[in-house]
Amino acid sequence: MSLPDTQTLLLEQDGPVLRVTLNRPESRNAMSLAMVNELMAVFAAVADDPAVRVIVLRGAGGHFCAGGDIKDMAGARAQLASGESDAFYMLNRRFGEMITATNAQPQVIVAVLEGAVLGGGFGLACVSDVAIAADDAQFGLPETGLGVIPAQIAPFVVQRVGLTQARRLALTGARFNGAEAARLGIAHEAVPAAKLDERLAETLAQARRCAPHATRVTKQLVLDTLVQPLDQLLDQAARDFANAVASEEGSEGTMAFVQKRLPKWAE
User: Fold this and answer.
1) Distance, CA of 99 to CA of 123 (rounded, Å)
2) Which helix (H) or strand (E) holds 19?
3) What pLDDT sits at residue 73?
4) CB-based contacts of 6: which residues, under 8 Å, 6+ apart?
5) Residue 94 exposure: Cα atoms within 13 Å on the Cβ side
6) Among the CATH numbers 3.20.20.380, 1.10.357.20, 1.10.12.10, 3.30.70.20, which is that of 212-266?
7) How far apart are the first and last CA of the chain?
8) The pLDDT value given to residue 13
9) Known Gene3D superfamilies for this protein (predicted)?
10) Strand locations in 49-178, DSSP E?
11) Are 138 and 118 in contact, with CB atoms under 8 Å apart?
12) pLDDT the model gives residue 237
């Protein structure tokens, strides 16, 4: 695997874990177009690599992501003034392409949420498979208070918290902490900030106990429940199950269970 060069992200390979750190601390890791493009390049580079089983998303400097980059908005406004009528559309839609790619990424996505988790950062949290929040992190959808809309993240927020809560959060711009984010289901749990690294390590240990290919197929199965008719989904699930049982992973998992040992992928 060859990772792309990045200017706005820090990349660290740690065995089966790829740690991706949003690295614009001077702007609380606001999501610039460059960062969006770099995230997409990293996701594409590792998508088919079975050696990368988990991607950890975190922000540098004590913040996850404070939303979109104001400088990009200003640049798009200048483009609009010069006659490029689709400038804002293209900027916003590119973010939507990234968050859609993150949602569908075959690896397990673990988000570590601290400091500002706002706007686009909030949306990114909503497409993680596991979200661990600091109990004092600050969450919110501030877009309507700025005269804009949470255009690309709204569907993913609805899927995460349900329609009634999504309406309240998006239409009031309410701010709330990590403990409330866990109650709403945006994060799966909230812990004191000093315990984030410990809880992350425990989560990664749990993920490593799961078979790599079975995890990928299971993630796709779960996502397909949103888009496929039930009979079609269950037919495909039965085929995937039969393939899994007959696979090398299935044999190893069964033998490890009988022999009361860890399977090879968890060692």
Assistant:
1) 8
2) strand 17-22
3) 76
4) 38, 41, 42
5) 19
6) 1.10.12.10
7) 22
8) 95
9) 2-enoyl-CoA Hydratase, Chain A, domain 1, Lyase 2-enoyl-coa Hydratase, Chain A, domain 2
10) 54-59, 108-113, 116-118, 130-134, 138-140, 175-177
11) yes
12) 98
Q: Collapsing DSSP states into helix, strand and coil, what is residue 47?
A: coil
CA distance 116 to 258: 47
Distances from the Cα of 154 to the Cα of 171, 176, 217, 236, angstroms: 11, 18, 26, 29
Per the CATH hierarchy, to which homologous superfamily does domain 9-208 belong? 2-enoyl-CoA Hydratase; Chain A, domain 1 (3.90.226.10)
Stretch(es) of the chain classified as CATH 1.10.12.10? 212-266
Could you report the average pLDDT of every consecutive run of 10 residues in the chain (267 residues)?
93 97 97 96 97 97 93 74 81 95 98 98 98 98 95 97 98 98 98 98 97 97 96 98 96 96 93
**Residue-level pLDDT at 71:** 79
